[in-house]
Amino acid sequence: MRTQLGSSARxxxxxxxxxxxxxxxVVLTGAGVSVPSGIPDFRTPGKxxxxxxxxxxxxxxxxxxRDPDRFWRFYxxxxxxxxxxxxxxxxxxxxxxxxxxxVRGVITQNIDRLHRRAGSRNVIEVHGSIxxxxxxxxxxxxxxxxxxxxxxRGVRTPECETCIRPLKPNVVLFGELLPDRAMADAYALxxxxxxxxxIGSSLEVYPVASLPGVTLDxxxxxxxxxxxxxxxxxxxxxxxxxxxxxxxxxxxxxxx
Length: 256
Ligand SMILES: [Zn+2]
Hints:
- The protein is of the alpha/beta class and 256 residues long.
- It has two domains: 1-39 and 87-127 and 178-256, Rossmann fold (3-Layer(aba) Sandwich), CATH 3.40.50.1220; 40-84 and 129-171, SIR2/SIRT2 'Small Domain' (2-Layer Sandwich), CATH 3.30.1600.
- It contains ten helices and ten strands.
- It has helices at 9-21, 55-58, 61-66, 68-83, 89-99, 114-117, 144-152, 180-192, 211-217, 244-255, and strands at 3-4, 25-29, 106-108, 123-125, 128-134, 141-143, 168-171, 195-199, 221-225, 238-240.
- The strands form two sheets. It has a seven-stranded parallel beta sheet, sandwiched between helices.
- The two termini are 23 Å apart.
- Bound molecules: zinc ion (ZN).
């Protein structure tokens, strides 16, 4: 039985029911969960940071290798923008679902680390995160606070203090493979899940796009909390299409 009732209480009640009945539920999130934190979804026309530049041109591993100053001129801005953002109520509710033992973890495409900051513990960041940068030479890790400090001081390219080599953000750049470990963890969680809550994602971009299919193939159900169409709308048990925070609040209310 499938319901598609926008922000209706019935849809939220159905999701609460599914969550309570599930044993191995997992959350999957995309850019939409961070929009209420003031982080634009780069696919939203006219709103994203990518409007000004071609991401393939600057956020590419080849640019980092060839011209780190150019890479960091762009990526430094991104670090500064994301570094100051705070988790919103949607991140908090996801963390609370884990805290209550209702979900096993969250798989996210977001690099903003806001799930962790909201208190989620089992977070699989399939595109990495801005939390640290690594020296490609010696492997030293440098935390974002230090990177932001350097950028604020006018350093063009943050470097390893020992090797004087440009630091690379631990995010997946264009032209790079996704991290094996994170992908294996994501697929394991998705295949074991009896319920996947897909939040704030159009489910169009690999790898997130493939994960609901993994859960469905293994006999699990999926719920979608996202504005706009997704390729999984027909297969979803329930779809909530209102504001992400309002919808998750309604689900939380229905659980109490
Ligand atoms: Zn080094």
